[in-house]
Design brief:
nine-stranded antiparallel sheet, 5 helices, Pnp Oxidase, Chain A
Length: 208
């Protein structure tokens, strides 16, 4: 028989008042058990008239201030986020039969944070940030390959490739975080944390 926490949920939900602490525990398990990209998440955005869009991105950092990913600011998602900063994230770890859903608002990270992360990227990835006009139409693949070669010639010092102004990170500051565990016969277990005006979290069990 599975052990339970104080709310009657599986013990993997623990008994924590801070959802960031629970996320850290679940994420650590995912990194040890998920075969590919445990930091992959579905990012949902919408433009100014509410038309939704979703794509997979990679989580590159998190703390009490939120969850960070990086992108070309002129891409579709970049443009949408400038129009409408409301967004959602969904992690799905099949190996653990778990999901985490996060809702909040996005703001750009500071330049130092963006620079620090950009400089950890492989040389080819830093060049790619310059060469790719993300989401724009290509005449053919050779057009992109030529642009890559041109930027390799321009920035041939692999230790000195500046970050483009149009490439940076977004931080999602959450207003709710929901933890989901697969259950038999679709009787799933769900625990949702909501942020209140006094900056404290309130948690509730949700019906499956």
């Amino acid at each position: 028989m599975n052990q339970k926490n104080s709310l009657g949920l599986n013990k993997c939900f623990l008994d924590l008042d801070d959802p960031f602490q629970l996320f850290e525990r679940w994420f650590a398990e995912a990194k040890s058990k998920e075969i590919n990209d445990p930091n992959a998440l579905a990012l949902g955005t919408a433009n100014r008239v509410g038309i939704p869009s979703v794509r997979m991105v990679l989580l590159k950092g998190f703390d009490q201030n939120g969850f960070i990913f990086y992108t070309n600011l002129n891409s579709q998602k970049g443009k949408e986020l400038k129009e409408n900063p409301n967004a959602s994230m969904c992690f799905h770890w099949k190996s653990l039969l778990r999901q985490i859903r996060i809702v909040g608002t996005l703001q750009l990270v500071d330049k130092k944070t963006a620079d620090d992360y950009y400089n950890t990227r492989a040389y080819e990835s830093r060049i790619g940030a310059w060469a790719s006009k993300q989401s724009s139409i290509l005449k053919n693949r050779d057009e992109l390959l030529k642009t890559l070669d041109d930027f390799k010639k321009k920035y041939n010092d692999k230790n000195n490739v500046p970050r483009p102004d149009y490439w940076s990170g977004w931080n999602l500051k959450p207003t709710s975080i929901e933890f989901w565990l697969d259950g038999d016969n679709r009787i799933h277990e769900r625990l949702k944390y909501n942020l209140k005006n006094n900056n404290t979290w309130v948690k509730n069990i949700l019906s499956p």
